[in-house]
Predict the structure of EF-hand domain-containing protein.
Amino acid sequence: MRTEVSAIPVQLSTWSLFVWFTIASLGALRLVVWCVWHTYRKLFTRISSAQTLALLEPLQRWLTVAMWSVVNYGAWLWMLRTQVCPDTRDCEDNIITSAFLGVMITSLCFFVKAWLFQSFVRFFHKSTYSERLKRLRFSEFVLDTLRSSRRRAQRAQRKRSQKADRKLSVKNVIASVARAPSPTSSVSDEDAEEAQNTVMDATKVADVPTSLAPAADANELPYLDTADSTRDVESGTVRKPAVRIVTSPGSEKKRTFHFLKSFGRGLGRSKLNPLVLVDTIRRRKDIVTADNATSVAAETTNVSDDLRVQATEFAKKTFNWLCPDDRVELLLEDFIPYFAKSATAKKAFTLFDRNANGGISKSEMRYIVVEIFEEQRDVARSIDDMRVALEKLDLMLSVLVGFMLFWVWLVLFGVDLADVFVTVTSIMVLSTYIVGGTLKDTFDCLVFLFITHPYDIGDTIVIPGHVFPYIVQEMNVLTTAFKRVDGTYVYASNTVIQKLFINNVRRSAPMSQNIELEVPINIPVDTILELRRRMAEWVEAEKTDYSSFDLYITEMASGISHMRIFASVKHRDNWHDEQKRYQRQTKFVTKFKQVLQELLIPAHDM
């Protein structure tokens, strides 16, 4: 290890040449990196290539700095060996060389850190959100296709109406002219000119371009459009990402989809990197404090209700347009004309056919569209919150790398580490008593969020021992905000939550509702079988909400005077939608009680 460093005189002309080369090399390297990245983006447009670009895009800056530091260090050594001391080559051991070497090591270390961090972010995002984004992209593609087809049909119908109005106007004018006085009567030139102008005006009104005509629906709801005819969803090729936010003029509800606009751009580009995807998302929520927590909760509730209203309106218009007047359900044949491939039309039809009965009712259409709109909102908010946590993780890694580089720079400048180590160690020990617990909690929370990752924004979770389920509203590094079904907002520390059992309802499979009763043992078996048959028939008729029913005798109870029967009905999906859950559970219990009363089966709950 060197104990001292020395400076070496360099001629002014040599310094000027080196400074000019430093500035020119920085500009040239930036141009080279930019050209290579954009050329790769133009040549390779598949989704797999887009994922690689999402990984490389944030690294352009560090890659440029690392290459520039290496080139500068090499140029400095070449200048010393060829211009300053070409014979002895003993002028390399100086403070400037040490500084250039330190800059090169620092830039390379931060480039490696950025590469590893972005690789982790890409892996985390792919494992957590890729399937949800894939389903969401296809759902948006289907809704956009139906919306565009409906608008084209409305424009065509409006054009036909304009033509009919033009013909009718011309006929009316001709008829009025025919009813005019005979040629023998005195007709002034002004009257003849006025009749001719009337015919010309009627023709001009009918020839107005469709683009200048009024909108087909003045109250058309905002909708996130991320697909067009140049995008092949089946093959995964993104030829020209089309992102449009279609809103009605003067609509007061644009803010509901404001934060989805940039998110749609990310989906259109198929970027799977949260730092790249979510950097463009506008953060809509304010910092929640004790004073404004109530107002934030009320605003979130209003936005959710507003989103449901808009989704319901969109589903209603789409269903009424697709469904003929003589039917109450949509069939596969109604979807085929609006998709390029029959397989895509069948897949789109299956998206809405929840009960797999070959028909789509108005309630099914409404339920799926509301679900897609809410999924858009939840995914955007979830990725946005995780972006904040990832930024804090990146800051912690940068501090750690900077601490290690601090010792490297001391070695490069020949500083005695023994003296510095004692001072730094004393400071670190003192800091441990102050922030040691916070750092440990922060590390545990980061592991909980990124490794365990038990929930996302919008997920419904159930914690054993708690009566009400919770809906995740906001995720931070140290805390998570929940909303109970009764509207109460709860803020919990992640250090406490990570020690609990968490049941994630949204990620669960279709769930079952169970009823266990005790009935007298003298009830005939035929009566039990009749109960099972009637309930099975009712569940078959309610295929939109339920998929199967079963009832069987489990064991004897209360000695030998009673026996236990177990009834189970499987719902079509899980209980993520609390409103739908309670409606279906109430409907099933009501019917089950009615059948028990009809068959005169006395029973009491366990």
User: Anything to note?
Assistant: The two ends are 80 Å apart (CA to CA). The first strand starts at residue 223 and ends at 225.
